[in-house]
Amino acid sequence: MPQTLSASDMVTPGSLNPPPTEPTDVEQAGQPLLDGAPSSASLETLIQHLVPTADYYPEKAYIFTFLLSSRLFIEPRELLARVCHLCIEQQQLDKPVLDKARVRKFGPKLLQLLAEWTETFPRDFQEESTIGHLKDVVGRIAPCDEAYRKSMHQLLQALHQKLAALHQGPEGLVGADKPISYRTKPPASIHRELLGVCSDPYTLAQQLTHVELERLRHIGPEEFVQAFVNKDPLASTKPCFSDKTSNLEAYVKWFNRLCYLVATEICMPAKKKQRAQVIEFFIDVARECFNIGNFNSLMAIISGMNMSPVSRLKKTWAKVKTAKFFILEHQMDPTGNFCNYRTALRGAAHRSLTAHSSREKIVIPFFSLLIKDIYFLNEGCANRLPNGHVNFEKFLELAKQVGEFITWKQVECPFEQDPSITHYLYTAPIFSEDGLYLASYESESPENQTEKERWKSLRSSILGKT
Fold first, then answer.
1. Which of 148, 100, 288, 281 lies closest to 209, judged by CA?
2. What CATH number was assigned to the domain covering residues 40-168?
3. CB of 262 closer than 8 Å to CB of 305
4. Biggest alpha carbon–alpha carbon distance for the chain
5. Distances 406 to 41, 219, 266, 312, 353 between C-alpha atoms, Å
6. pLDDT, tens digit (0-9, with 9 covering 90-100), for 327-372
7. What's the CA gap between 309 and 444, in Å, rounded?
8. 3-state class (DSSP) for residue 446
9. What is the pTM for the complete model shown?
10. Coiled-coil intervals in this record (predicted)?
């Protein structure tokens, strides 16, 4: 397996502030909830702040923060039902005669909220009942202005297109979860060496960036919350969508596949000169990934080269110019809570903010560390405070981290895609861990008794007795 780090290595325990012991009461209507304002509020108050009126519309940052975090306390379909009910009640939309002047001030704000919700969290509207709520509340304001009905039609069209795209998903990882056992001479039909498909490091780094952005595009912001959903002790509802994290999980599997693919490509060649050539090629690819801002592929490549079956190839590494590799390792060193990487990430993020081209906007974070940061934020701070209020300060920080990721994943890849390369990345067979060790021992003989015994055992179990 790739070298892994314990949770304590990933995030410094003292880096999270504990929840305040004296929660602030913010039950007064209209009190701001952003920009240094109160740290907590009741769920009912937070829902009320989401509901627009003729004279009020919530801040965009508040909408994202609350819609992201609210699923820890209430299912999205129930939240939508309550929001629509409050709109109907407060604007008296159930009356036979409507106040058309007030509805014309309220209508655009309602449609804007629904548009932001469906755009950012389209999966919240997969159930037919949620669409029913949308049609009902807009149908009540439509008599005041026919443009509302047209706007709703356009909103639903855009929503259906988004859901259809999400259901398609990225290209599957054919064979990614079933590494092959070692074969001394694998049939040409199932394996081609990567250098035969792409010999230019910059091109491969670009194609890896294509794959990363394609897979990131399918990860919804809600998956970061749903990955850690536990039943709220003060809520009567069941945890919602706790198993709906398939795109997030698929992305983690892609990282692991890339690690094993790198190790397989290195261990495959019979001659150490060829193995050294593959190592140097991947070092150059990793460097190009760093320059592009593709830190996830960078870390996967480094992890693949640091796997024990690869790192033990001392005669091979002796032929490698390792200076560039050590520089890259230094950049991704876990010391100090990945201090060097975080500095590089901030630099890439700043470049992205001031960029004039899509090429400069690319920021693909080391995904496992991002997940662990969010996990420790969730674990380090309570969702509710002792008085029952929602710890909104925590969710503002959560939304900040997830929102930044959402911005990065929306960048259009500026590089032209090469289907033959991306297909190879997805489908080339990879060795299992035992297969990698056996290939490594075949390339460079075991050096000690432990390795000799393992080699003998592997040959017996994988190749059969010789």
1. 288
2. 1.20.870.10
3. yes
4. 90
5. 26, 9, 34, 39, 14
6. 999 999 999 999 999 999 999 999 999 998 889 999 999 999 999 9
7. 10
8. coil
9. 0.83
10. none
